[in-house]
Write a structure and sequence with these properties.
This is Aminoglycoside phosphotransferase. It comes from Kibdelosporangium aridum. The chain has about 375 residues and is of the alpha+beta class. About 40% of the residues lie in helices and about 25% in strands. The strands form four sheets. The protein has a five-stranded antiparallel beta sheet. It has a five-stranded antiparallel beta sheet with strand order 6-7-8-10-9, sandwiched between helices. Strands 11-13-14 form a three-stranded antiparallel beta sheet. A hairpin with a 3-residue loop joins β6 and β7.
C-alpha cells in the first residue's frame, strides 16, 4: 500500500515501520509510519500517514473492495491544511513577522509533536533566542484556541491565528516539569494548583465526561489490542465508573500532565489549553498523578525522585479533594495510558501495556 503511493509520487520505498497506531473501535484506525524513501534527488526519511473510516478529501485512496484506506505524506495531512506552511522556515518567518514580531533573520524549525489528522506543534527558534510555537489544528478550531489563550493569564499569549488552522503562541521561559524531574528537581504543589486556579470561567462550555466516565472506551481499546488483559481492563473500568458528579463544576485543563507545566523561578504555568473547559478538579489532579506514576515506571533511574514529588502532590491535592475518589480517578487515567504502548508501537508494547494495567490496579488498592 505505502509502496504504491510512494511510487505514484516518483519515489521508491526502501524501508518502513509503524510509529503510531490510533485505534478507535467501531470508527477508524489511523497509523503513522516512519519510512525511508529514495527520490530522484536523494534518499530521505519521511513520515507517511494512513487512515480507515470516514476519509477527508485530499488523500490518495486505496481499496481492497471492502475497506478504503487513505494515505498521505507529511506534512500534507488532509485534516491539517496549515501544516505545510508551519514546517517551512520561510513561511513560518512570514507568519511570525505578520504577527508583529521583529524576527531579524532566518529561523529554524523543529516539529515537536504530530498526531495524524488531529494536531501538530512546531517550534520556531528566532535569531534572538526567542521561541514561537505554531499549534496546527483543524481550521474550525483555530479561532477558539486563539481566543482561549487571549483570556487565560496562566497560559502562553496567542500572537494570532490563520484560516487554515495555525495558532501562533509566544514561547514561555523555563522548563517543563518533566525536564525538571529528570534533573532531580521538583515543584511547589501550591504553584500547581495556582496555575489551575488561573483558568478563567469563560473557558466553560458543556461539562466534559470525567476520566472515570471515559474508562470503558479505554478498556475496549486494551481489550482489542491485548485480549488477554480484557477482563482486568474491564474490571478497572467498572470500579472507576460513576454516574453522579464527584466534585463541583470548575474550569479544568483537560490534559494536565508533566509536559504541560512550565516551571520558571519556582512558579508553574500552563503550556496548552486547547482541551480546557468545564469539569472536575479531580480530573486534572488525577491526570498529573497518573502520568507521574507512569513516568516513574518508564524512567526507573529517576523513579524514587519522581515518586517523592508525586506523593507531595497527592498529599496537597488530598487536602482539597476526596482521597479515595482521587485514587479511583488516577486509576482511570493510568488505564487510558495503557493504550499508549501499542499506539506508539513500543518494542515491548504488550508487556508495557500489562505493566500499566497492573499500575492502575495498584491505584485502586
Amino acid at each position: 500500500m505505502l509502496a504504491t503511493v510512494v511510487a505514484g509520487a516518483g519515489g521508491e520505498l526502501l524501508h518502513w515501520s509503524a510509529a503510531q497506531v490510533d485505534h478507535q473501535p467501531g470508527k477508524r484506525t489511523t497509523v503513522s509510519y516512519s519510512a525511508t524513501v529514495k527520490w530522484p534527488d536523494g534518499t530521505r526519511n519521511e513520515i507517511l500517514g494512513a487512515s480507515s473510516g470516514q476519509l477527508p478529501d485530499g488523500v490518495v485512496r486505496i481499496t481492497d473492495g471492502t475497506t478504503d484506506v487513505g494515505v498521505w505524506r507529511f506534512p500534507f495531512d488532509p485534516d491539517l491544511p496549515g501544516l505545510p506552511r508551519a514546517v517551512d522556515p520561510a513561511q513560518a518567518r512570514i507568519l511570525i513577522e505578520a504577527s508583529g514580531l521583529d524576527v531579524g533573520g532566518d529561523v529554524s524549525i523543529h516539529t515537536r509533536a504530530y498526531r495524524p489528522r488531529r494536531r501538530a506543534v512546531v517550534e520556531v527558534r528566532l535569531p534572538n533566542q526567542r521561541r514561537v510555537f505554531i499549534k496546527v489544528v483543524r481550521p474550525k478550531l483555530a479561532k477558539d484556541l486563539h481566543d482561549r489563550h487571549r483570556i487565560a493569564t496562566t497560559a502562553p499569549e496567542s500572537l494570532g491565528w490563520t484560516d487554515d488552522g495555525l495558532v501562533l503562541l509566544a514561547g514561555l521561559p523555563g522548563r517543563t516539569l518533566r525536564e525538571e524531574l529528570l534533573d532531580y528537581k521538583g515543584v511547589d504543589p501550591r504553584s500547581v494548583t495556582d496555575a489551575l486556579d488561573g483558568l478563567p470561567w469563560e473557558l466553560g462550555g458543556k461539562r466534559r465526561p470525567t476520566w472515570g466516565q471515559k474508562a470503558a472506551h479505554y478498556a475496549e481499546v486494551v481489550a482489542v489490542t491485548a485480549p488477554h488483559l480484557s477482563k482486568r481492563a474491564w474490571l478497572i473500568a467498572a470500579k472507576v465508573h460513576h454516574e453522579s458528579p464527584e466534585g463541583p463544576d470548575v474550569p479544568v485543563h483537560g490534559d494536565f500532565y508533566e509536559s504541560q507545566l512550565i516551571i520558571h523561578n519556582g512558579q508553574a504555568r500552563l503550556l496548552d489549553i486547547d482541551t480546557a473547559g468545564r469539569g472536575e478538579r479531580l480530573d486534572d489532579a488525577a491526570c498529573l498523578l497518573g502520568h507521574l506514576s507512569v513516568l516513574a515506571q518508564i524512567r526507573a533511574d529517576h523513579a524514587a525522585h519522581i515518586t517523592d514529588v508525586q506523593d507531595e502532590l497527592a498529599a496537597h491535592f488530598s487536602e482539597q479533594l476526596d482521597p479515595l475518589a482521587l485514587h479511583r480517578r488516577t486509576a482511570a487515567v493510568v488505564l487510558s495510558l495503557a493504550t499508549g504502548p501499542h499506539r506508539v508501537q513500543e518494542e515491548n508494547w504488550l508487556r508495557n501495556t500489562e505493566l500499566r494495567v497492573e499500575l492502575a490496579e495498584r491505584w485502586l488498592g
